[in-house]
Amino acid sequence: MIRVNNLVKQYGSFTAVNNISFEVSKGAIFGFVGPNGAGKTTTMRIMATLLTATSGTIAIANRPVSRNPREMRKLIGYMPDFFGVYDDLRVSEYLEFYGEASGCNLAQVRSAIPSLLELVGLEEKRSHFVNNLSRGMKQRLCLARTLVHQPEVLILDEPASGLDPRARVELRNILKELQRMGKTIVISSHILAELAQLCTHVGIITNGVMPVCGPISEILAQVSGEALLEVTVLEDAEGARIWLLEQQGVREVHQTNTGALEVFFEGDKQAQASLLRAVAGRYMVASFIPRTSNLEEVFMQLTEVTGSADTN
Amino acid sequence: MRIPINPLLAKELRLRMRTWRSFAMVSLYLLVLGGLGLAFYAAITQSIRHGFGDLVQAGRQLFIYLAMLQFGLVFFLVPGITAGSITNERERQTFDLLVCTQLTPFGIIRGKLASALSIVFLLILASLPLYSIVFLLGGVALSEVITLFVIFLFTALIYASFAMMFSALFKRTMAAIVASYALSLFLAWGLAMLVAALLGIFYRGTGSFFGQWLLLVHPAATLEWLFPVEGGELISFMNGGRYPLPGFLRFWHLAALVQAALASLALFVATRAVNPLQAGRRSG
Predict the structure, then answer these.
(1) Do A187 and A41 fall within a single domain?
(2) Residues A269, A149 within the same domain
């Protein structure tokens, strides 16, 4: 659905985006991860036809976005990281305005508004002034605005920033619902745990380059290499720790405050199963939990590597 | 049946009319215009009572007075009304959302311009009853009042276009307002003073004076349409007593053309400036 090919964006001598390429298939939720100033917003703005690329291309539905930006905007719903609203408009008037401005017939927009408001949980607020909505509600209203012309692709730049945990959960549920409706979503966020739960694919961008991109499970496996196993035995934890250290593939074993043993283990799933069988044969094992690295660890690992490379 | 209207204009009108500011502006405008008009009316009726002039003359004088006053007010208000059109969207962070729609850059400028002019139109329309006093006294034809209103709207369009250009070029409303007023004041006062200075230095009372052509961009140049005698005399004065243009061609014709061309150029610049793909901006 979206194909980004060797994208470069330069501002004078500063390269904001440096030769990044990735693809997002139809119906996927693609998470864009990166520290501030990494080039996420620039890439998303080029995608949303708000900026031109220095070189490279972005194609949506096999059509380059730069060729006919106005036509492409029919396919795109864009939500910027910072946005304002017209406080003196009512919720329904706000959506009517954007619907009409997006080229839709007013009658069409009016008939679509109830379902849009229901989707974002604002059906009760239809006649309220935008001014009276909470930040989370405004965020959801803006999401409804991106949907008012029924785009196929949603580009959401930090849609959860500044929201409380409840509002974030609600937003996540809405996005999942949109995915079920067949929308292709590109989303950036600093809340990596949420992206991990929501996204099917992730691209990590740092200093304008994208060293890692693909399905989340593949990325975690690709970057981590080493598994962390949490083993709890009912008695003789110290003996178990010493015994585990002697096993093949075990690099390090620590005992945590809760008494569990953290085992740093290099080996595939089969090797993990063999270790479980062996440890269970000698000790009373209460739990054996393989804890793979999470997106946050991968992100830290990557950005640290790039940061130290920059320093060198 | 709904009349098709630029959605931006519809939104702007709705927002403008929903706040107390528009009503306050119209009220204040009428108060100033009506107050000064009545004061002038009282003064001329007093002078008639003392045997100076007649009612018809008084009607004419009041018309000229109201016309000049309103011209000044319109000229003064237009930059203030228009200069925030685009900068407000930027400051409110709604600009990106606007350009992501199907509205073309010119559609955005057109909607904003129409919104600003609609306020001016409302002010002019609201002042209409004041002119009924002039008709009571006589000395003024209906066609003259219509001509005056056309000149008002034309001047408003020209100066709104200049202010729109600054609004599209600048990021802050304050900067756009300052630039708009600076240009408007320069064209109204600065230019007149420049021409007067040049006249004093270079003009010897005979032949043609080049400085008169600078007045083509002066906002009051189009008033020659309404006051052909007074306007013609001024232009002829700077041309050795001879009107500088042949046949039916009048100075205000050229002035309107030049001003319309400059306003078109300003709108072209504004349209380019609101096109995000032609104005590179850095983002995070």
Answers:
(1) yes
(2) no
CA distance A42 to chain B (A): 6
Residues A252 and A201 in one domain: no
Closest-CA distance of chain B to residue A277, Å: 51
B11–A89 CB contact, under 8 Å:
yes
**Inter-axis angle of helices B105-126 and B7-18, to 10 degrees?**
40
B10:A40 CB<8 A? no
B280–chain A Cβ distance below 8 A for any pair: yes
Q: Look at A89 and B281 and tell me if their CB atoms are within 8 Å.
A: no
Name which of A51, A78, A82 is nearest B93 (Cβ-Cβ): A82
Residues A237 and A209 in one domain: no
In this prediction, residue B248 carries a pLDDT of: 85
* C-alpha dist (Å) from residue A80 to A210, B176, B187: 21, 25, 40
The domain of A249 spans 225-291
Residue of B nearest to A9 (CA): B282
Say how many CB pairs under 8 Å bridge A and B.
Answer: 88
Summary mean pLDDT of chain A: 85
Q: Identify the pLDDT of residue A310.
A: 44
> Quick one: tokens of A86?
């017209």
How far B157 CA lies from chain A's nearest CA (Å)?
Answer: 24
ipTM of model: 0.82
- Judge whether A38 and A205 are in contact, CB under 8 Å: yes
E strand or H helix at A76, and its extent? strand A76-79
The reported pTM is 0.81
Cβ of B277 and A93 within 8 Å? no
- Percentage of chain B exceeding pLDDT 90: 42
What is the distance between the alpha carbons of residues B231 and B224, in angstroms, rounded to a whole number? 5
Which residues in chain A are contacts of B284 at CB distance < 8 A?
A: 36-37, 40-42, 81
| CA pair distance A210, A9, nearest whole angstrom | 14
Residue B57, both tokens: 């003359």
pLDDT at A127: 92
**Spatial distance between the Cα atoms of A177 and A194, rounded to a whole number of angstroms:** 15
- B50 and A CB contact within 8 Å: no
Mean pLDDT along residues A37-57: 91
- Domain CATH number, residue A234: 3.30.70.100
Answer yes or no: do A46 and A180 share one domain. yes
Note whether B104 contacts A: Cβ–Cβ < 8 A. Answer: yes
Residue A306 domain flag: no
* CB nearest B92 (choices: A73, A84, A145): A84
A110, A210: one domain:
yes
Residue of chain B minimizing CA distance to A14: B282
- Helix A295-311 × helix A216-224 angle, to 10°: 50
A184, pLDDT greater than 90 = yes
Q: Using one digit for the tens of pLDDT, what is the confidence trace for B185-229?
A: 999 899 889 888 888 887 776 667 777 888 899 988 998 898 888
The nearest CA of chain A is from the CA of B89 a distance in Å of 9
Total number of domains in chain A: 2
